[in-house]
Amino acid sequence: MAEIQLRNISKRWGAFVGVDNFDLTIADKEFLVLLGPSGCGKTTTMRMIAGLEDATEGDIIVDGERVNDKEPKDRDVAMVFQSYALYPNMNVYENIRFPLKVRGSDPATHHDRVMQAAERVELLDFLDRKPAALSGGQRQRVALARAIVRKPKVFLMDEPLSNLDAKLRVSTRAQIKNLSHDLAATTIYVTHDQIEAMTLADRVVVMKRGVVQQVGSPTEIYDTPANTFVASFIGSPAMNLMDGEVQGGTFRSQHTEIHGLTAPDGPVTLGFRAEDASLAAAVQGQINAPIYTLELLGDATMISVRINGALVSVKADKAFRAEIGDTVSISVPNEICHIFEATEDGKRIEG
Amino acid sequence: MSSRALRQPFALKFTSATFLAIWCIVAAFPIFWITVMSFKSPVDAFSSNPLNVVFGPSTRAGGNGLSILDILMGIVVIWITARLMTRTLPMMVAAYAPAGQKWIGWVIGSLVVAIGFLVTFFAILPAILDALNPVFGPLGRDIIGLTTEHYKTVWIDRGFSNNFKNSMIVTTGVVTVSLTVGTLAGYGLARSGSGLAFAILIIALVFRALPHSVLVAGYLPVFISSSEWLAPILGENAPTLYGKPFAVIAVLVAINQPFTIWMLRSFFQSIPAELDEAARVDGCNHFQAFRRVIMPVMWPGVITTGLFSFLLGYNDFLVTSLLLDAQNQTMVPAIAGMFSRETTTTDQVVAVAAAVSITAPLFFLVMVFQRQIVSGLTAGAVKG
């Protein structure tokens, strides 16, 4: 198996920067997720590792060997494409067998390996079908089987679930997690869905406009976001962020006053997670504002207020009922607060 | 089946059906008429009474005709052949041909059926009917005059088979070169993102827009003097290209190539680039990805483009008539020669028979390839 080192790789098309100075070591057998909104360079990074895109600068090192100038076929990677990219003229069996065939591995072993891969993804009933006669989920499983039939050093998955419907996404996600555990191969997984990232990853890389924002375990990323971009991207709902000013350890904003913070005086962005905060008895909480909207989620009720134009939500008991416009009091103790610089994508201020 | 929204009022249906019917008749009539003419004696063929042209009394008087029995038996044989081709043959191929080599089964099966049909239709059937016709009385009496003598004259006496052979050489050359260069160039241009690729395509379009005569005029002196300029390379035996099929192939390819490149490029563009990429990650180099993954889904495009190239070479008059000597003449200029000769009515009917003969390979091509010219071969490759 393989350790992948990405040393300061960049990708530029003319003046446009796709990926800027990406530097990371991916450990052997690690499940790494590249996460970010569309156009953030995550797929480009993966394609550079696959060899489908040339890196403008930097070195890609797999198992101590520089692979920048190698053809994709010589890098010993397997890739699952967002659009499946199955060979339409071959049936499922031939699709799965194709990598073995072109690489000239011993034909006697082909059948067993194809059957094994097909069994892993529960495709045994469809081996004679052409891709056109399969559903989206089945096609995606064929693509998975084609990737695992050979034992490659590295698995690359480019948003493999984004074309599936919500229910199938959950079951296929579980399948991928289980598969990667069994195969114990280094896996790089690209997604824009933070839930996929949280559930699958050993480590998450959050990217924006080609620049890495934060690298860390899902817990780290969730609990200590490095800046407001990560804070607003991770979690469902995303972290509440409000602009205000700190003076003498007290944060003040519209309807809001939070004491006991350790931050230098000046404008800051303060964030907290909806599930950390709670409702307080009248005027006891740190935020006292009229309800802007109230959403029933089933297991809880989400109450939102507006602070300086930004929506701030808090999770309340599912039995809580109120009218829009009623004043609520929200308890935001200082220990749940995250403080960021008051710039765009403001950095976290430790403390 | 038809939803309410798509249901049409009767008047509209009637009008469109009538229009289509008239259109078909107008379009098909000339072919039908010259086909009928070509089987009649000159007196019937040029008769002022259309019924005489169809039923051919003087052809019948000459002892050549078809009885009702002949026609019925002929239809039966054709129908059985059609059944064999569409029902029995596919089943036999599915049952007996080795998997992966179905096309061999198809080739062998089709050959067997074709030979069987020719033998039955042209040898066994006439012999049987000769014996049966006198027995059946009125049913056995000739009602339509029909003679194949003009075809014999054309193909055997006038050496049309030689023209046919030359046409095949020229068209095979044009199709082979056009498709080989066209697929490679089309694939390269479709997958290249560079600005140069676009410039090349525009230049190709400009060349396509040139009148054919310009190209012929440009090539003509080069071909006439080819023994001189080829001498340093090939020595004493350097050929004069003028008059040879090779010269025509070169010019026709020059005319045709821009078009095939454009057409194949658009077919390649409709194939998602992820397929190439998947193939390359799976272990192919560029060329293997092209050959093993892209070409198998490109057949409809290749066949369609090939058909167009074939038609260009097959129907070309200007280039072939200017560049070929008498002995390498293709069919189209040969027919033009037959028509323009100072002639008797017999010669005219012979020319008509030649004109009908030239359409036969086209029908054959369409019949063979209609199964292949199907869209949607890439269905299922990517998320639709």
TrEMBL record, chain A:
InterPro entries: AAA+_ATPase, ABC_transporter-like_ATP-bd, ABC_transporter-like_CS, ABC_transpr_MalK-like, ABC_transpr_MalK/UgpC-like, Mo/tungstate-bd_C_term_dom, NA-bd_OB-fold, P-loop_NTPase. The keyword ATP-binding applies. Residues 4-234 form the ABC transporter domain. Coiled coil: none annotated. The keyword Nucleotide-binding applies. Gene3D superfamilies: 2.40.50.100, Nucleic acid-binding proteins (2.40.50.140), P-loop containing nucleotide triphosphate hydrolases (3.40.50.300). Keywords: ATP-binding, Cell membrane, Membrane, Nucleotide-binding, Translocase, Transport. Belongs to the ABC transporter superfamily. This is ABC transporter ATP-binding protein.
Automatic annotation (TrEMBL), chain B:
This is ABC transmembrane type-1 domain-containing protein. Residues 164-369 form the ABC transmembrane type-1 domain. It comes from the Bacteria. Gene3D superfamilies: MetI-like. The keyword Membrane applies. The chain crosses the membrane at residues 20-41, 61-82, 103-129, 168-189, 196-222, 242-264, 293-314, 349-369. PANTHER family: INNER MEMBRANE ABC TRANSPORTER PERMEASE PROTEIN YCJP (PTHR32243:SF18), MALTOSE TRANSPORT SYSTEM PERMEASE-RELATED (PTHR32243). It is found in: Cell membrane. It is a multi-pass membrane protein. Pfam families: BPD_transp_1. Belongs to the binding-protein-dependent transport system permease family. InterPro entries: BP-dep_ABC_trans_perm, MetI-like, MetI-like_sf. The lineage of its organism: Bacteria, Pseudomonadati, Pseudomonadota, Alphaproteobacteria, Rhodobacterales. Keywords: Cell membrane, Membrane, Transmembrane, Transmembrane helix, Transport.
